[in-house]
Design brief:
By secondary structure, this protein is of the alpha/beta class. It is built from twelve helices and 14 strands. α3 crosses α10 and α3 packs antiparallel against α11. It is globular and about 60 Å long.
Length: about 290
């Protein structure tokens, strides 16, 4: 009887284990696991030089971040890096909604953004820079100049760091126009609606490369507060810290073997855009990390 009771108990335990096993969900596949299994990752960009853009005529994806990502993932088993174009303001929402595995379009590491996403290591240093009409007719060389010249109006990208930095350095909000993209900002400058179009320095380098706009120039010098300096990085979902860490392994390699210097030179970046040795994402995120 004891043997039969014990056998029955074991049988019931096995049935229970099978039933429970059939009800409980399997462990979900992580983004990193899927990316490595497929050898493919999807990156959101906003089609802007020098960050990531389609070459006219061929549709080839070029830019600082496409080249950097391909190099960083090349030895990690991710051979296919696909890019999807969206508006700048839709990058982080698209990442959160699962449209992309990461976003790469000149995003600055800020404590506010660090609350939303997990940034990879900083890959480029960025100052604020001003584009003005050739000859710089209003002699604009700083936010202080924009603040003290009562008839000076500046333009900047909606939601961009330059807007926040300009206000912090005393430029009145009623003399700042915000635009949805680079084209409308530059068009306003040419039309005389604004006297300076503000962007990150890498964006200005890409915008004026090849002397394609002889009617425009970079205001040089353009001095800003030290707090206006920012650092650019790839952004991942916070739940995908392991994928971010994998990318950071590749980033460290391309930084150490000289590949990153080659890519920087390709897009007109020099020593000014180098990230200081030892600077970390945690330091830039501060308390938000």
């Amino acid at each position: 009887m004891k043997f039969r009771a014990r056998s029955a108990a074991i049988g019931l335990a096995c049935i229970y284990a099978v039933l429970v096993g059939s009800v409980l969900p399997a462990t979900a596949e992580t983004t990193k696991e899927r990316v490595l299994k497929e050898g493919r990752i999807v990156i959101g960009i906003h089609n802007r030089s020098p960050w990531g853009y389609k070459k006219e005529g061929t549709g080839e994806l070029l830019g600082w971040h496409p080249d950097l990502l391909r190099a960083a993932f090349a030895d990690l088993g991710v051979k296919q890096v696909d890019f999807e174009v969206t508006e700048f303001g839709a990058l982080i929402p698209g990442l959160m909604a699962g449209r992309f595995d990461a976003v790469a379009s000149g995003l600055s590491i800020t404590p506010e953004r660090c609350q939303q996403v997990a940034f990879g290591g900083p890959d480029l240093r960025s100052d604020d820079a001003a584009v003005v009409l050739a000859g710089n007719p209003k002699a604009i060389h700083s936010y202080a100049d924009l603040a003290k010249k009562s008839d000076a109006i500046m333009g900047g990208g909606r939601g961009s760091n330059v807007i926040k930095n300009a206000i912090n350095e005393g430029v009145p909000e009623d003399r700042i126009l915000q635009f949805p993209d680079i084209e409308t900002n530059i068009a306003a400058l040419r039309a005389g609606r604004i006297d300076a179009a503000l962007f990150s320095s890498p964006t200005v380098i890409g915008l004026l490369a090849g002397n394609r706009s002889p009617d425009l120039e970079r205001a040089s010098p353009f001095t800003t507060d030290e707090k206006s300096i920012s650092y650019i990085a790839i952004a991942f979902r916070k739940d995908d810290g392991d994928l971010r860490d994998l990318y950071n392994q590749g980033l460290a390699k391309v930084m150490s073997n000289g590949t990153i210097a080659t890519i920087m030179a390709k897009y007109g970046f020099g020593p000014t855009e180098n990230v200081p040795p030892g600077l970390t994402t945690s330091q830039l995120c501060g308390a938000a990390n």
